[in-house]
# Entry
Amino acid sequence: MSKDKISDYSATANSNTDIAGINIDEGCAPSGINNAIRTLMKQIKDLYAGTSGDKWPVAAGGTGGTTASEARTNLGLVIGTDVQAYDADLAAIASSGKGDQIVSYGTYGVGFKNRIINGDMRIDQRNAGASVNLADGIYNLDRYQGSVSQSSKVTVQRSSTAPAGFINSQVLTVSSAMTFGAGDYCGNAQAIEGYNVSDLGFGTASAQSVTVSFWVRSSVTGTYSVTLHNSAFDRTNAKAYTISSANTWEQKTITFSGDTSGTWLTNNGIGIKVYFALGMGSTYGGATDGVWSSTPKLAVTGQTNWASTAGATFYITGVQLEKGSTATSFDYRPYGTELQLCQRYYWKCTASLGSSFSTSGTAGGGVRMPVTMRTTPTLEAGGTFAVSSGNAGTPAAYTSTGGGSGGDAVNVYNSANNWTTNQAVALTAGFTAEL
# Structure
């Protein structure tokens, strides 16, 4: 057989009597040797250039294939796991000469993959890690809002107990067991601003799937629920997950199909609310798993009433909601970035208002927000003034733009009208613009 390419050669020297049909056997013409050497050089060049049709064996340092698909198969490489498929955007980054900068920014989550804010539970402006009662409609750790029909039954606080890769979690503890009637409920939730989920297309034919992932640890095993609902609470979808082992960290991943019906806000109102159910009566329980419904439900059939067990604990961290049907690694963001995201909704302020007040009346000063808040904030009760001398007064704030306030700054004043004149004044207070 004519040896037209290198792979046709024999490992037995005496069997190699031609090169591409040119006779090099014993007694061949001298011109045959010249022509054979030239042909051999071309075959080597073709092999090097990949145009010979030969498949260089993996064992010899090759890929064993002549196409990219063959090479990946022979080398055991999987796109998306071992190698990255071609992407025009990635190619543009590579050619920009700034790929190292862009990758660094991507590592820190500037792309906002995770629509949950404070998913790793680091930020606790209100309570600084102290335990407080879980109260209906009241915020605890930043961006998390209590949902409970009975008061003083459950406490919540930031914890340093966390799975590998995290330093904090949120822990809820049953201080007094709840007895669940039909209308009772217990859970904790985060409302996501409409601007931050507008690309998901909920309420349209192009609604995208989303995936919720998180780490959880509970002293009570059983079936639990994660629910998504809109601002009007007339589009809901509850999905179950199972806590299999008591007091053991388990990671959960739950994918929701996008809702093509209903009204989903894409402004500064509630876009999507994510609800973690910890106990539910029949009024808001009994949802069909994974089905979008117009019935206001917060838990699936069979939801474990965790809050019925005195002393029970429930830890959660690494909460992420992202576009698509695949859970990716947690979107770690720098502490300063995460704090600013929280401060759009709540800011614990300690600020100087100045030191030159010419009258003892209601004169005050402006407080500039560290970020633009979601809407003109209100001043939480319990704020205090500190003065260098005399009466401290009572903080109040103008809550309209006509009073000089807005999302960027708020004017505060002394509602007690009793300041001592010409004293330095400092304010400690919380400003809230929560959803």
